[in-house]
Structures are given as structure tokens and as C-alpha cells.
Design goal:
This is Thioredoxin family protein. The chain is α+β, with helices and mostly antiparallel strands. The protein has one domain (6-201): Glutaredoxin, CATH 3.40.30.10. Helices cover 54% and strands 12% of the residues. It is built from 9 helices and 4 strands. Helix 5 (94-107) links the parallel strand 1 (83-89) and strand 2.
Amino acid sequence: METVKQPMVNKIISESIEKSINYQDYRNLVTRLVEENSTTGNEKTEALVNYTRLNDKRMKRWDKTIKLSEEAKVKIQGFDKNVTWLVITESWCGDAAHVMPVINKVAALNATIDYRIVLRDENDELMNQFLTNGGRAIPKLIMIDNTTDEVINTFGPRPSVATNMVNVYKAKHGQLSQEFKEDLQRWYNKDKGQSIIEDLLNLLV
């Protein structure tokens, strides 16, 4: 963001929010794409279509099973800033399938958090302001103060625990193997969204 003037960033964010959708509409979109044997994004490969199908199942499961502690609920409900959580994603993204339902569970507990979603490949300007290590990694949550229009914080593309796992593996092996990616999916399943919840709670200060 250092190379772009803040008013321009605010304009890009504002325009993205205008064309954003809520979580239920996103879920409906993904389900419809599965029925149509398709996917979001510029590429419509068979592999990405299959990932979208798999992610629809994952999100259905997490929508039903994510649990928040009473302590977490109290902190979420006590948050009193009027904010937008604008999330950049695509239906084929494996990390997003685990993260998006958790964000929904948290945001649903507080009316001052407006959870909105846009697709990466349809929002190049926005994505380019919120790169991760120079890459267009998703999902990416941008937390915006609705009073000042300022970006307060960001989260993503993975919870901090998973990010550390990825960084350690990359430092040792250079790139992520298919075996590691499968291990990461098992970690998400075992963690049951708790690391994501913890990271999201850290945004609510």
C-alpha cells in the first residue's frame, strides 16, 4: 500500500464494497457453480472445478460444526466499532473453504461487523493493494473502520499457526509438496477453526 495514495486505496475499497456480496449469497453462488460444473475465477480448469466441488462440501460441514467458546462469544459481542470485514477469495481456494465459514460465525454474533465478499480475479486493483509477500494469496480479510474509511487491520490468507507451518516447510524444502498440502488439510480438520477464531479475536481491539 506504500506506493498508492490513501485516497486512491479508499476509492478502490469503496468500489469493491459496492459490488460485494454477503456470505449467504457467496454460499449460494458456490453451490450453483457446483451444479453447473464450473468455478469462479479467470481459469475454468477441471482441477479448479473439482476444488470448488470439494470446498462446497467443506463449507457445508464447517457451517454446521464450527463452535465458539463462551469466552470468545463475550469478546465478539462486546466489540463496539462499526467495521466492514471485506474478504477477497475464489471458490476453488482450499484455505478459503476452511476460513470463510469461521469468519461468518464470528461476524454473525455482532451487528457492527459487516461481512462482505468479493472475488479476486474480478478485483485486481483491490488485490494488488493487499498482497502477501508479493503474491495474490487468498483469502484476504481487510478490516475497514466504517467511520473513518481507514484500513485498521488485515488477516489471511491462513491462520497464523498454519502460516508458520507453511513458512517452516518452504524454508526447508523450497516449495509445498502435495503431501504437505494434504497434511495442512488434516491440520485444519483437527483444529476445527479454533486458530482462525483466535486470530479473528485479535482483530477485535
